[in-house]
């Protein structure tokens, strides 16, 4: 059956279209003023002194790991309940991945599990803000810093969120965002790295720009150089976000709070409509957390997730599973990672079904989703 409702989609209006068209009418299509403005805008939301915009959330992770100095022989501890780029981007830098289990309520990386996993080779602890609920950054930072490591927050789900009044982007040593169409704001494809460490941001900026610098204070060449001069001092990649997409991002950011309020209202409506059903568990919301709900991760506890998935799809409702545990993927299985390593994350994944979540959902849409779920469980 053709889906009536996808589980996620972009929210684009005429102001977004005009912002993109204005760039197309101008002189700069890339590395120009729209990009500089977008990076300033993202830094403002994150509460950081700067931001480095890149071509995707995956590129943001790769750039962040490179800027953090992850190298061959280092270990990166991360969650299996995430999109696999959180792990694989560290592998591209030569790191060994160590999966630690998640907290049963939020699905976020469990600080106690991380504490049991750290070694003297741990370089980065990388937690994901699952579904938009921020990680327990204070506890994770304490564990990471105690091991001489950095805390990376994969905030692909949570731009605009906060914990105890501190914005996502200022909770960890380095934070990455994603601006894919289903995310909380979009640049079509895109991402960003933010941090309070200006040296780390400078390294990130060089990495995403193919590794070269025009900063004369960093040059190794002696004597005065011509205006054409630049140096490549380390490896990098071309992860530069075009101005066309940056302009879309800045336009979207003007409505970020509106998007957030609507996502919270949808979450509240789901919570109310699905409350008190023994077979179901609605998302956890810890005290002090101000989530930016990217997903609505419903859990069905009676082992019938596949049947519920098929029931919803047959009813025209786009649902999804977020996620298959990363360590179950064939790449990791071929390298000795096994089922049973992270039992809490695996149980969460077995139960989880993401219901439609995007700002343009109407109350009637949400009620239709609730009706189908309740019909399935006989409530």
TrEMBL record:
Active site: 183 (proton acceptor)
Sites of N6-(pyridoxal phosphate)lysine modification: 183
Needed co-factor(s): pyridoxal 5'-phosphate
Keyword field: Aminotransferase, Pyridoxal phosphate, Transferase
SUPFAM superfamilies hit by this protein: PLP-dependent transferases
Pfam families the record matches: DegT_DnrJ_EryC1 (PF01041)
GO biological process: polysaccharide biosynthetic process
Keyword Thylakoid belongs to the record: no
Gene3D superfamilies: Aspartate Aminotransferase, domain 1, Type I PLP-dependent aspartate aminotransferase-like (Major domain)
GO molecular function, a single term: pyridoxal phosphate binding
Stored CDD domains: AHBA_syn
UniProt similarity note: Belongs to the DegT/DnrJ/EryC1 family.
Protein name as catalogued: Aminotransferase DegT
Organism of provenance: Luteipulveratus halotolerans
